[in-house]
Amino acid sequence: MSKMTRLPSPRLLMGPGPSSVSQGVVDAMGAPPIGYLDPELFELLEGIRVGLRRLFGTSNQFTVPLTGTGMAGMEACLANTVSPGDQIVVVAAGYFGERIAELAVRMGAIVTVVRGEWGRAVDPAQLRATLEAGPAPVLVAAVHAETSTGVRQELAPLAEIAHEAGALFLADTVTSLGGISVEADKWGVDIAYSAVQKCVGCPPGLSPVTVSEAVLERAQKVNLPHGYWFSDFKLLGSYYNAPHVYHHTVPVNNYYALDAALSEAFAEGLRERFARHITASGALLDGLAQMGVNPLAPTDCRLPTLNAVIIPDNVDDQQVRTNLLTKHGIEIGGGLGKLKGKIWRIGTMGHTADLNNVERLLAAMKTELHR
To answer: Would you give the end-to-end CA distance of the chain in angstroms?
Structure first.
């Protein structure tokens, strides 16, 4: 075994993900595995699918935890809705909106990006103007909770505009699912993906997706880009649904963890869970403001799950984050893309969204900013 530097353990994960998990989730993940075609596995999976529908706010039957992280979900959702040469429109005001566009280009789509200012929500009127200028897209995509900026984008207005143009609507809910309300059916979201390692409260390894019948019908006709066998909803549906035809060896221990995390979420109550995230974020931002560290996003579009805050002048971004990790055992994230070196990204997600954790970080941050 290689010799590793020993840092404070366990870490308190307050970055953009993964977040810390409960002991109950850790214990569940340690159960003995069973086979990928075991009848008990499909009983477990059915319960998980019911729980994910509840989190997504949907009745979509094809709601499943795909193997892989949120990027696997993004790739699968695009691959099953976009054929080479298709027109798509991406609403982007951050790193992950731009990544949706990048993946679509790699798949051969003709991509138009409706760009907004990083740190602000995009005005739906921008999307309307773009669609009216044509040509008509088959898909419009947007990020609900932009992990790079801490911004919440309202999805219902965008979905309505997309549908008026005859397009399907895709949503990235990676940093919202389980931490703030997601109402896919009510908002008109046709297909969405997420990840379990943030607000849901699991270790990384699964990407929940929910897919409407309209998208499944399109997936039957889409010519998947070369090499996208693993993401094919037609093949995956035959595994997740009876007769459960072998597709790949699923990470059953991740399923155990997700089942435990969903049970904890519903035992707490979703309304109470969402309120806990708001309370933790509010306490964090109040405490940081007293140190001269202020949020990037305005109140009307600010996420309670991912807090993007502006690094004060004359503060060494890397040194502060390194000291927090090595001296205090706390991880926070730096900026991405054009915000690199300009912001910190601090997560109050899932099990991490707790006032004790916030107080611990604030005390450590105070020490490091006055060092």
So the answer is: 36
